Structure of DUF1738 domain-containing protein:
Amino acid sequence: MTKSITKNAHPNKQPTASNPTTRSQPDMYARVTAKILTDLEQGNLSWRKPWHSEYMTGQVMRPLRWNAIPYSGINTLILWNAASERDFTSPYWMTFKQATEMKASVRKGEKGTQIVYADKFTKEEEDANGDLKSSQISFLKSYTVFNASQIEGLSDGFYQTPEPVTIHQQARDQKLEQFFAQTKADIYTGSQACYTQSTDRIQMPPFESFETAMRYYAVLAHEVCHWTKPPHRLNRDFGKKRYGDEGYSKEELVAELGACFLAADLGFEPQPEEHHAAYIQSWLQVLKDDKRLIFQTASYAQKAVEYLHRLQPT
């Protein structure tokens, strides 16, 4: 006997006039991964596109639901990419139904963006002894959202472009200094930027050696995301054996995505490091080998950033 119980059904996963079907789970993994692979093959990082778009300079933030709750994980990457490619300036996204409920309407001919919803359901089966055993099965559903820029009739707040965030080129930013200090990470000044797990310390070059304050904080955000990986924190282990192997590439991708998520939350630009070209080549290979990897690493990055936020005083 098999009994399936779906839990925590997402309010947006039911088909609507604009989204009559859902895609199969393998198709969603392949579709999103293929898009990111195409960008990487061209030397572009999908998740950094918003910062490279002139219309979004200095105002990149997390994509927001209709109720101002930020999207997370892989949906952040999907919506950043869509906004950059289609010049959307509003951070707000919603379903056709949600727009209608707010007495607004999606403009005729507008194409929505498919994002995903991950959840689990409980499956109960009888074992050889006739006893019921429960297991958690993960699943993905896709649904379609539209940017506020594609919708008419919303209140003015949905169309307002966020104010640019300005950080002085060389001065330390006290808000960011406080955020990183509150993590209680052991950060010391040295000759290179790295996190060493054996000593549980982060080494950073002198602040003055960076061209801009933003570059310093971008590198620090990357290293602090690495700092979340030990067993006594998030226990994230990809089986790294040596520099440049598959486990190393996966962990670097988590730190890269985590730095971008954190930069969007805190309002600064996650400027790329000089060796990203080498990372792109290693990421291309591991993403080609595993279509689920970008979903998994985005989830790990999200958890790392959430962990860092939890360390802040309430």
